[in-house]
Amino acid sequence: MIYKKIAHQLRKEINSRKYAIGDQIPNEKELTALFKVSRMTIRKAIDELINFQLLSREWGRGTFIIAKDVSFGINHLKSFSEIMNEAHKGYTNKVIEFSVTSNINPVVSNKLKLTEKDKVFYVRRIRYINNNPVMVEDSYMPYDLFKGLTVSDMENSKFNYIENICGIKIEGSYETSYAIMPDKEIRELLHLNLGKPILMATTYSYDSYNRIINYAIIYRNSQEHIYEFHLKR
Fold first, then answer.
1. I need a labelling partner for 55 at 20 to 30 A (CA). Which of 30, 80, 174, 216 fits?
2. Distance between alpha carbon 89 and the CA centroid of its chain, in Å?
3. How many C-beta atoms surround the C-beta of residue 157 within 10 A?
């Protein structure tokens, strides 16, 4: 739909250095001329960004930027919860699967350096920003390291549980991302349109003893949310 394409373009502009939070964007007449579409189409595009709590319309004054999308900086490892708190975004984690299993995928077993007798926690959770699903995360965590893990822990901050409850220092994380076509289950969990690719990431974290303490597969909703990686040299 045309208005969604315009909303996406406006979203990129809002997130650029061109604008700061509090700035006013061009009015509907100016945007109509710029995009060569009807005022109704522009209004629908702006409404889309208002629904995502990036813009606020003030009658008689104009439309203003009230937030920017979250930027995920990879120069310093932070948890999802830490990023959301720093960005003052409302977020929740919903655990939809939680189990202990020894039936482990060979890829996961190899990454975590497990034996046939070892068990892992498998946790699938949906992560929301302002009540919109942005990620589905499948976590695999060695049972022997995290025997006290609960659903409540995973509906809060996983990093907080590892570091502050278990006393295990996270030294770093490796992540690989690539585009995929999501299956029906992921599409439904993330409220995605059919035929649109998303970003899938595999990530594993290690502690100060160089043990792999967490392996995760993350499905990111890149249709409605922008992921910006900022690298410093």
1. 80
2. 12
3. 19
Let me know how many helices (H) and strands (E) the chain has, helices first. 8, 8
- For the structural domain made of 80-220, what CATH number should be given? 3.40.1410.10
146, HSE (Cβ side, Cα atoms, 13 Å): 29
Higher pLDDT, 100 or 68: 100
The correct answer on CATH 1.10.3210.10 for the domain covering 2-65 is no
Helices 2-15 and 28-35 cross at an angle (nearest 10°) of 110
Percent of the chain with pLDDT over 70: 85
Q: What is the pTM of this model?
A: 0.66
Strand 198-207 vs strand 170-180: parallel, antiparallel, or unpaired?
A: antiparallel
Structure-token pair, residue 143: 């049972």
Of residues 178, 176, 177, 137, the one with CA closest to residue 159: 137
